[in-house]
Predict the structure.
Amino acid sequence: MAHFKVACNEASLAQRTSGALIGTDTRKLADAVSQFARTDGDFGTAIPGLSLHRRHKQTMPLHCIYGLGMGLTLQGRKQVVVGDEVVTYSPGQSMVTSVDLPVISNVIQASVAQPFLGMMLTFESRTVVQIAERLQLSQRIKDDGFKPVTVNDLDAGVLGALERLVALLDEPALINSIAPLVTEEIIIRLLLGAHGPQMLHVVSVGSPSQHIAKAIAWLKLNFCQTLRMDDLAATAHMSPSTFRQHFRSVTGMSPLQYQKQLRLQAARQLMLSEKVDASSAGGLVGYESSSQFSREYSRLFGEPPQRDIKRMRLQ
């Protein structure tokens, strides 16, 4: 889903210029994905990091975390919100997320006759770093502002590699040996293409974006702990005020807001998947006050915990 600033005119331009790709170029991959995603839902696959998605109608906004990777809409349209920014991407466009971000996403165009079809491929950050170093790309970073989410026209080479990746699902014996090679090809093509400058910001040693990416990684693992801003800023080699400024420019929110979203989304998942009660869920993610947990949960998700989980289970 940094500040995310994919400007509206940039997104609109991408939508206009992608028109030629909406036909047969993505239809082959859409047909392949539909063979594995035959009903509504999110489908993990035997290929690490690859998931397939199908919806037959518009969906309610969903709070989730987008990690380092690429999202692709093959049929229908999807909208992603980070902070105050809204990005819409359609067939013929690719969306790349360079750092882990709390986002709000929803399908905005789908029908029974033309269901939304999409896929996501996440990457290991160390793999991206190793490839960038091998290709000696660290010196190619531009001085323009960092955008943690970018939407660009789908590169034909990336599309071909994705088609070969999905085709491997029909040849499970080859997945372990070939899928990593195809995934590496996709990363190389992204680094060398339109998404490359933004991806390189977070793998360039010593760049502010890389320091923030490391802080984000720490927060994801330790969001239950009390946040000490001075300590977190020190790990990024910045003063607290500079750290807050860079963190907000990357994620669209303050470190405290980021931690809060991680906590509340984790609590929601505990209640939904493991049937943990609201009071226990709040405590497990770091809240000392159940009333504060309920207030902040309602503010983010629109309803108190019990009512929200009941509604989610009825969907």
